[in-house]
Amino acid sequence: LAGRRPQLLQGLPATSSVEENAAAGVTVYTFNVTVSPLSPEGVAILPTIVNSNPLTEAFDIESKGDLEYRVVTTGNPVLDYETMPKSFDLQIFVEDANGRTDLNTLTVRVTDKNERPVFQGNMAIQTVTIYILEGTRPERIYQVDAADPENAELKTHFLPSSFQYSLLPAPVPFLVSESGAIFSTEVFDYEKDPHSYFLNITVTDPEGLNSTRTVNINIININDERPYFSTKQRIYRIPEEQSPGTVVANITATDPDDEDTPSRLFYSIQSSDRYFSINPSTGVLQVTGRIDRDAPPLWIHSNISVIVRVQDSASGGHTSEMEITIIIDDINDNPPECNPSTFRREANENTSAGTFLLDLRNYCQDIDVDPSNNQFNFNGLSGFGSNNFALESAVSGRLMMTESIDLENPANLGVEVYSLTVRVQDIACPNYSSKYPFYTSFDIIYIYIRIKPVNDFFPVFSNLSYEFNVPEITKVGSRIGRVNARDKDWPPSVITYSIVAGGGTRDYTNVFWISPTKGDLKILARLDYETTQKYILIVQASDQEKTATASVTVNVLEVNDEEPVCSPDFYSLQIPVSLAVGTNINGFRIECQDRDSDPRSFRYFINEGNVNNHFTFSPSAGSNTSRLILASRFDYESGLDTNWIYKLRVYITDDNLLSARDKTTHLTKTGMVTLNIRVIPNPTTVITTTPGFTLVTKKENLYSESAWYVPFVITLGSLLLLGLLGYLGFLLATWLRTRCPGAGRADGTPL
Asked: Could you tell me which residue ranges the Cadherin domain spans (predicted)?
């Protein structure tokens, strides 16, 4: 009907009930779903529990067919009346194929059910075992704890186990009270009474439901008798050096308390003994530590006393003790030993045959106690070069040389050290067991004989003389060559090199240095072809005893490393503005020289200060002299020229004779001259010149890097001298100006 909600869930809402502890799949309620005749497809969304109050997953909906459904328990969780809610509201939703929906509630009430009583504590999960010592007086031995889920009053009683009851006389010596306390009713005797009892404890609720658990009661034996030794033997004999674990004796004892069962006894050694131990459970006495008859204290006393104790408890109890004696027999268990076992001796090369080198018997001994076991001899001399040595006898053990050794002889292969071995062996047969394969009846001596070489030969240079060509510009510290020397001694001698003569100059004692170990020659100071063209050195090679010398010639090769030096290198001039072009200015010229260049190699050019190119030098190349020429007129009126003072830097290079390609590869040097030229504007009177002088400084390039202070001192002294001369010139000009008027006197008297 229009406006009315469709009812699809038939039989809902409703109320139903279910018992607690219901298993999974128990039907709680059944209902139907009604769909419209216009909806042949049926239900689109099956009935579903969409919510519950309180929340739970204990319920689900299953189909019974033909649109009939039932609400069932899931068993997860199991419904419990005592611990869970008593009622659940389940909201059930359904939707048919036409989109019609319905939502209704099913109320499920949980009903109580009488349950069996349950044991608590240990009895709830396992069989309880109770232990009672024999001789214990009657008392409460256990408290049973049980509960009824419905909180009803419980009654507790016990029934003997049917299986155990058949083994025990009736009645059993136990009772249980209404409160669940279990009591013993007699004093137990382990040797007379049963050793265990099984009791079935039953608890019953008012409606007759009950639960049963089993209690196991064990009677514990107590120790009240002293054990005694049953082994009668008191003296034992064993050889020394028995391996750990070797059985010496089997000590046994008996405890009267355990006559019906194997005795539970504990064995121990009371005396302080490092050689033996006893199994605490079995009484087997066995070797623990090394038993050496040849070492103190057994070297003096060969008997060992051991006190064995037996007790019937691991911690105290009843005990008994017995002393046994163990006699240790000596065996031949020690090979001869040498200390040291390695010897190093030296013998000079060419030592004569028959020379004794070593007495081995002084270093060897056998520590066996029995004299029949400590005799030994020497034999088996072997090793590399053993044919050069021999033992005087097997008894003495004296090692001697049989022939002289020459290390340079090819037959000796140039070997310096001979490795020998000698075997030191027991004379008596060893008494070793197969258990000790690491024991041997002999010792090995290692002897190393070093033959000290004798210096027989002089060093010999690979060449009688050496010659090395070195450019003069080679850097200080550079290697210029190597000399090499050897001698025929074996092993090869260490050769050291030194310069014993030559290689010095006026300024340097040693221009050269030689590596003492490699023979490399290096230069210590700058070479100068113009000063020294050749050095002749005497080089010595030494093997610490013998020496040899060789001549070394060092040729210094000329390299263009000198700059042109010109005179003067600084000059000041004054010229009139109207000086004619082509005039040699003030007759000035420079003269240059270069110690390692031809005079024709000079080339002159003004590098700086030649504004408008008024000045030039002629000739500009090919000569060691050149004049300063005015190349063009001055033009101050039009403003072309504005400078009245010219500071010219003139460069003089020594590359004039080189081609254009050679200039890029050959070393060239450049000198410099500085000129100050003052232009005098339109002079109208005759300029009177006064006597003057020109200082010409001749320079020679003898500079050394190690003498840096020389140019510094020269430069400083030159500056001070020039300053002094300038000051004197100034004083002279002042005096002349005061003494000599410019034209004449007023009275017409001539000057």
From this structure: 10-119, 124-229, 230-338, 339-461, 462-570, 567-693
